[in-house]
């Protein structure tokens, strides 16, 4: 656990970069520090491992003030990754990852195993790239090595200053996703600095929004989007905050189970009745035996056809439906590209399990944050 | 080991480390072949300088002649111009030769001059200090010496008589120190008859000396039995002369081979002598270092660096130049003689090229050690956060060190420290600091802040950051600074001669003041070669010392 207690940082020129910061980062959580350029994110981050000294206030690590440690001892227990990566160009990839373990005098065999494990974890094949030098790797690969290096001695805490800031958007998305997977495994307590709200929403368990050194709002991504505290926050998260919230909601949580649907062996009358019941112009057709989505049928086609088999349109499930673990935003995207009122949702087997309608999504983004709702619930 | 080998074969295919092998070969040559080198000499100017100790065998009519170690001398004792009539001349004497007249003209107080084959005696009448007289007369006397291989030294033979004796030095050039041998294998003759049928030397001895009754020839000993009643003293003296008369070059020095192979190619006056190389050990260490350097380069050789053959040629030529030129007086002699056929002076009186080069290197290395340590220290200090405020000051200081002419520094230094070695070193340090300090600063500043930041963030101490991060990354630039500084230093060090520090500046300075062009070249050519060699060696070192990861171009 990392706690900022009334932390103030004044640079020698009198500039107050961090102003009365109070913040608690819980174990195993990613806390994203975000804010406009120059708002003090980097300053706040670097005070944790004492690269910058606190002017007033204190930072506690697991309850212990961080100035009770020798700075070097403290830093070796805290992973550190920065945007410019800072790999040492004269050392091999392996040696770079081994820096902190070597500083801690681990024995070489243990270091070797640890290094190979970490490189594998970040998707760098140690047998191919381990003995190369940083300049022989691409930017994305270097960034992975930077993350592996920060994890070097298995520190409980990681500080990451825009670690994926220097790579192209596609690589960044991949790195973000992979890092979240790694985090699932390692469960570090992480402070993650970014100025990219999308990254913050995607990566953060909690987001701390800073403005000119002051903490404006500290909330889960969903709550931040749902209930911006003031205009600054609202503007910062962007006009598309509703869309962004859809990112945070999975289809599973937002779908309705009751969608117009009929089995492929139904009679035309039964189909008609189903459409009536749902006040819909089209219905999905599933396999009578296993419930898998086969295609759809439209009301207009019913009159001209002799049977459902004739009237229905076949389509591969993946092209018209979204899987249960997709985000609500993906569901919206499918919704917009087809003419259905409802986007069907399928499980891993391809069985139709429900659907998402535009109305449903609207309700969701207008609702207060889920976490806020739960808190209110608890408060009551 | 096997891992390292595997890496090499992977990275460099089947190529061999030619450079390293070449240097290894040179090393073996120097030590394996007994530190010897081959030079051509003017056979006529050799005289064997060896002798025998004679011992009488108790109770037997037998003498043992043992050869002492000998030295071959090259050149002859210089003589005063031969057509010059010898004799005593007084002022106004019509028959006085050119030399005498020149001397009378130089100093009015000279009353009498005596010229002999190897001496000139000057009697003068003034109250001048003998030392002053000597220095006034030295130049005209030296000019009078016809022989181009010698020097004239003067002794003051007593102030009371006011006489100065100039004599040609007996200090001939020593070339070969060797263990001479009488014969190759032991020869035993128990009668005169047997000896008369024996080897050349045996026949020669019995023919020349009557009392000899038996003879045993060993490589370094001669045992002679003589007839009853022989007077030993004259017999031994006579025998010694006989032995010395027996053409010593061919028989007593197996190291000296007369060239018979291709007389039409090699001038008849040349003989080949195999002689020990005085520079053997330093050269050996040097070549060994180069073996290491070249192997280092080979091990880090990357794909696409296929100019090893060029390196080979490079190394071979630089090495051969260095090796063959520096150690060998006769070569200098020959070169200078070819360039200045009429010059009266070719060989510098104060020392050999290798002497001057050794002094020069001492000067350069001493100052460079200071320059490197002080320069690195300053460069590192002013890039530390605590001392960064001194950066402009240090920059200005080292800059001004290089702007002030070296001679001026020496001139300022002179009254404070005096003349000699140290003032020259101090001046060289002041002059050579700039490239090292500047490049150390530039090198360390070239390390990006993010690299230092991440090193600090990982928990490296300041010292670890310096040693493991900043210096390795800056090493290439720093090495380049050291290289520049040392190469400049070699040139600048020639100025040291003006404050008496020795070195290759001495022949240059005396050449300039005495207008002997040969001397100028005698200093300038080796200095230039030394600079080239240094640049080359440090360039190779630079490649080896630069961490491999930094050689990758991005
Ligand atoms: N060493 C310093 N001295 C004075 N001001 C500084 C120093 N470092 C940063 N600042 C100022 O502090 C503010 C916060 O900087 P920083 O924490 O780096 O911002 P960011 O949120 O972009 O990471 C900026 O306005 C910056 O100009
Ligand atoms: Mg920043």
Share of β-strand residues of chain A: 15-25%
Q: Which protein chains make the most extensive interface, counting residues with beta carbons within 8 Å of the other chain's beta carbons?
A: A-B, 30 and 25 residues
Distinct small molecules bound, one entry per kind:
adenosine-5'-diphosphate, magnesium ion
- The CATH homologous superfamily of the largest domain in chain B: MetI-like
Radius of gyration of chain A equals 26 Å
CATH class of the largest domain in chain B: Mainly Alpha
Number of helical elements of chain A: 20
* Residue share in β-strands of chain B: 15-25%
Strand arrangement, major sheet of chain A: 6-7-8-3-9-10
Q: What does the largest sheet of chain A look like? A: 6 strands, mixed
What do we call the CATH topology of the largest domain in chain B? MetI-like fold
Q: How large is the radius of gyration of chain B?
A: 32 Å
Could you tell me the CATH topology label of the largest domain in chain A: Rossmann fold
At CATH level 2, the architecture of the largest domain in chain B is Orthogonal Bundle
- The geometry of chain A reads as elongated
Instruction: Average the pLDDT over all residues of chain A and give the rounded result.
Output: 89
Number of strands of chain A: 17
- The CATH H-level homologous superfamily of the largest domain in chain A: P-loop containing nucleotide triphosphate hydrolases
Fraction of residues in H or I helices of chain B: 40-55%
Mean pLDDT of chain B: 71
Helix fraction of chain A, binned, reads: 40-55%
Please provide a brief summary of the model:
The complex is a heterodimer of chains A (380) and B (554). Chain A is α/β, with parallel strands linked by helices.
Walk me through the structure:
- The complex is a heterodimer of chains A (380) and B (554).
- Chain A is an alpha/beta fold and 380 residues long.
- Chain A has helices at 41-48, 71-76, 93-97, 99-103, 108-121, 126-129, 139-150, 169-186, 197-203, 221-226, 231-237, 241-248, 251-254, 268-278, 299-304, 308-311, 317-320, 328-337, 358-366, 370-379; strands at 2-10, 16-25, 30-34, 56-61, 64-65, 78-82, 157-161, 189-194, 206-211, 214-219, 261-263, 282-286, 293-298, 313-314, 322-323, 342-346, 352-357.
- Chain A contains 20 helices and 17 strands.
- In chain A, the strands form 4 sheets. Chain A has a 6-stranded mixed sheet with strand order 6-7-8-3-9-10, with helices on both faces.
- Chain A is elongated.
- Chain B is an alpha+beta fold.
- Chain B has 4 domains: 15-46 and 248-347, no CATH class; 51-72 and 180-247, Ribosomal Protein S8, Chain: A, domain 1 (2-Layer Sandwich); 80-177, 2-Layer Sandwich (Gyrase A, domain 2); 350-550, MetI-like fold, CATH 1.10.3720.10.
- Helix content of chain B is 52%, strand content 15%.
- Chain B is built from 19 helices and 16 strands.
- In chain B, a hairpin with a 3-residue loop joins strand 7 (110-115) and strand 8 (119-124).
- Chain B is flat and about 100 Å long.
- Classes of the chains: A alpha/beta (380), B alpha+beta (554).
- At the A-B interface, helix 2 and helix 4 of A face helix 16 and helix 17 of B.
- The complex binds adenosine-5'-diphosphate and magnesium ion.
